[in-house]
Amino acid sequence: MNKETRFVQLILEWGAKYKRPFPWRKYRTQYKVLLAEILLQRTPANRVEKFFPRFVKKFPSPRSIATADINSLKEFLYPMGLKKRTKWLISLMKEVCAKYDCKIPDQEDKLVKLPGVGLYTARAVLCFGFSKDVCIVDVNVARVLSRVFYGSDISKRPSEDEALWEFAARVVPKGSGTRYNEALLDYASLVCKKNPLCDGCPISVLCNYYIHYKYDIKN
After folding, report:
1. In 10 A of CB 88, how many CB atoms?
2. Widest CA span of the chain, in angstroms?
3. Are 20 and 52 in contact (CB under 8 A)?
4. What is the 3-state secondary structure (H, E, C) of 33-76?
5. What are the C-alpha distances in Å from 47 to residues 22, 66, 108?
């Protein structure tokens, strides 16, 4: 078993035990996935977690946001510090309804043309909303992959690192992309953080960063 295959196996095993039960992962729909990804941008997951069920109950579909009163939506988002996303959400869902009959498109080239949707968000929707085996690379995923396989933290923005995206795509396991990517995101948040919890980490046996770290400590 090569290193990439073993890494995927360990991430999946870890995820089976420690996967976070976020509301957008339960009874998921393409709409809920896209909505969650927009709300999660530059916002802590635990903040969105508390707010998300009430939001979906109030706005259960793309059309409900597309036709929402802007002040009502802004007031609903205000307690979570997300009121600046009001116009963005309305523009996004209006375009979804106008171009795709209020259905979230399942093609990357269409998704990235929607307001506020970049490559990461598009891939996340394809993976978590449509169960496609595609890679997702944000700063957290990039940190894990860079540490394990290259022995150091990332040196530039992940969105600009084509080689990293190509590598990440190669590692995604066929038929298990959703479970793998969710586990990888959770692992990056809970274990391989900016200040990593290397001791007891199940991936340390493979991690170039950890090997170098141990060597530096001993010397």
Report:
1. 14
2. 63
3. no
4. HHHHHHHHCCCCHHHHHHHHHHHHHHCCCHHHHHCCCHHHHHHH
5. 11, 24, 28
In the chain, the amino acid numbered 82 is: L
Give the SS3 label for residue 187: helix
| Separation CA 38–CA 31 (nearest Å) | 11
Instruction: Kindly report the number of other CB atoms within 10 A of residue 159's CB atom.
Output: 15
Amino acid identity, residue 45?
A
Q: What pLDDT sits at residue 155?
A: 53
DSSP per residue over 79-137, as a string?
GGT-GGGHHHHHHHHHHHHHHHTT-----HHHHTTSTT--HHHHHHIIIIIH-------
Q: Which amino acid is at 195?
A: N
This prediction has a pTM of 0.90
> Pick from 79, 26, 14, 15: which is nearest to 53 by CA?
26
Helix (H, G, I), strand (E, B) or coil at 148: helix
Pick the closest to residue 149 from 2, 15, 43, 26 (CA basis): 2
Q: What pLDDT is recorded for position 154? A: 63
Our CA dihedral for 107, 108, 114, 120, rounded to 10 degrees, sits at 140
> Positive or negative CA dihedral for 112, 117, 118, 119?
negative
Angstrom CA distances, 72 to 4, 87, 204, stand at: 48, 12, 49
Closest alpha carbon to 93 in 126, 127, 120, 59: 59
> With 80 as the cut, is the pLDDT of residue 216 above it?
no
